[in-house]
Amino acid sequence: MAAARRAGIKWPTVCGGHGECAVCFVELVDDDGLQPLTNPEKTVLGRSTNRPRHGGVLRMACQLRVDHDLEVWRIGIRPPKV
Ligand code: FES
Description:
By secondary structure, the chain is α+β, with helices and mostly antiparallel strands.
């Protein structure tokens, strides 16, 4: 979510990035090189009705620490206007 915001993309949240709402969920093409699911992700995504739609892996964007390019899917997110 922080990387998206740095790129000028408004990312949805209800809890402000505290790992409580799952509104920030994102589907990753793959999660190679990322840290394992955090405890908030395990808890909140376990309760969520969201499921991967493209065969990827669901994560919570607010919990991800990204240090390389990722390909993601997320309904409702638009690239910033240039
Ligand atoms: S912003 Fe609420 S769980 Fe990520």
